[in-house]
Amino acid sequence: MSAAGFLDVIGGRFQIVEEVSSWQEAVRLAGAMLVRDGVVEPRYVDKMIEVTKELGPYAVIAPGVAMPHARPSDGALGLGAALLLVRRSVNFGSHNDPVYVVIAFATPDKEAHLQFLQELASLLAKADELVKQLAVCDSERELADSIRDFIRLGSVE
User: Fold this and answer.
1) Cβ-based neighbour number of residue 73 at 10 Å
2) What's the rounded Cα separation, in Å, for the pair 71 and 47?
3) C-beta contacts of 42-50 below 8 A and 24+ residues apart
4) Which of 19, 52, 59, 72 has the smallest C-beta neighbourhood within 10 Å, fewest atoms?
5) CA 82 – CA 119 distance, rounded (Å)
6) Nearest CA-CA partner of 93 in 19, 18, 17, 23
């Protein structure tokens, strides 16, 4: 995935918090950015939490990184993602805990859903390096620049 492509999907939806009380709060914070920008209906955020409770910590797809999401039919209105950095981490009950980076996303249909996941897989191939790089960011702008640099410098094709 290109830096421009991933950053376009995020669309400036970055947030840094020191800590959260639970993984549910982390998902709600990331999801709130999607709701705010009209990417999803509020029920989509509830469904992300419900699905994680039902299926276990499936959303923690790499060390330090969770990607909560639900089906397009659960209230997705478009393609979008939001990145939440939790400085003190949060546990989802996964072998990939602790989680520092929460990327909530929504896609309007199954095809876009699969394509986004496939493209994001290349970004997360070196998730440990990405998490270390993002963890030192002090602003949303630094998060975007760090992702752009991470991709451009060849960590991701």
Assistant:
1) 10
2) 9
3) 42/75, 43/74, 43/75, 44/70, 44/74, 44/75, 44/76, 44/106, 45/104, 47/71, 47/74, 47/75, 48/104, 49/24
4) 19
5) 16
6) 23
Query: Residue type at 24?
Result: Q
> Which homologous superfamily is 3-151 in?
Mannitol-specific EII; Chain A (3.40.930.10)
Averaged pLDDT for residues 71-84: 95
CA gap 27, 41 in Å, rounded:
14
* Catalytic-role residue among 13, 47, 69, 113: 69
Please confirm, yes or no, whether 95 is among the known catalytic residues: no
pLDDT, tens only, 95-112: 999 999 999 999 988 888
Tokens read off for 144: 């975007």
